[in-house]
Specification:
31% of the residues lie in helices and 19% in strands. By secondary structure, the chain is an alpha+beta fold. The chain folds into 2 domains: 143 residues, 3-Layer(aba) Sandwich (SMI1/KNR4-like), CATH 3.40.1580; 65 residues, no CATH class.
């Protein structure tokens, strides 16, 4: 793919800004097979430059390689469940050319349509919506979808938000670079928590905690310092 491809240039610039980690060509082919349809060029670019860690965006959402193998099936199952629960209502049907690009908490998914060109809009559907019969356009393109997530704000400071993104990246990257217990070499089970400075509700910093079941002990490190030893 040409480096100056206008469909890809904004996505590539965002990936550089986020220090993203992309998929291999073989992994992109695996996504294509799982979806059962061709991938739009913009989504292929996302996978190529951000597919393994998502740039730390969209924590809690299945959006990266290793998480998305089943999202199309999940979306279809969710729609079928809602069709059974609402027999008197029209419930949306996933288009045959849809590529499901994310699933969040089991009740909402996002997709793009290959028939709409190299750079289609991102649409979403949500359980509990007031309009179960249709999807909604959430972003004009994959690049807009990423930029929307990048500028999303909560009460935390800019520093805390950057820390949170680095922590999400680190957790996703462990899928490809597993980390073993530093004392026994066994498997670790990971969870995260947010630590706040006293009196500052905007100061949240992610801490990652690793539990070794074999030894019955836990370790931790700051999520935005993934290369430091576990404590």
């Amino acid at each position: 793919m040409p480096e100056n491809d206008s469909v890809s240039v904004r996505i590539e610039a965002l990936a550089a800004q986020l220090d993203g980690w992309g998929c291999t060509p073989e992994e992109i082919d695996e996504v294509r097979r799982a979806q059962g349809v061709d991938l739009p060029r913009s989504y292929e670019t996302f996978l190529r430059v951000l597919g393994r860690d998502g740039g730390g965006l969209m924590g809690g959402t299945e959006v990266c390689f290793g998480e998305i193998a089943q999202v199309r099936r999940w979306a279809i199952d969710l729609l079928e469940e809602n069709r059974a629960q609402h027999p008197d209502e029209e419930v949306f049907r996933l288009p045959d050319d849809a590529v499901v690009i994310s699933s969040h908490q089991g009740y909402v998914f996002e997709f793009v349509r290959t028939s709409l060109g190299d750079d289609p809009p991102v649409e979403w559907w949500s359980e509990g919506s007031t309009s179960l019969g249709r999807s909604t356009v959430g972003a004009a393109s994959i690049a807009d979808w990423l930029e929307r997530e990048l500028v999303a704000r909560d009460r935390r400071s800019e520093e805390a938000l950057r820390s949170h993104r680095r922590s999400i990246q680190a957790m996703r990257r462990r899928r490809f670079q597993p980390e073993m217990c530093p004392t026994c070499g066994g498997n670790l089970q990971w969870r995260g928590e947010i630590v706040y400075q006293a009196g500052d509700p905007n100061s949240g910093r992610d801490r990652q905690i690793a539990m070794c079941a074999a030894e019955g002990r836990s370790f931790w490190r700051w999520g935005d310092e993934p290369d430091t030893p576990l404590r």
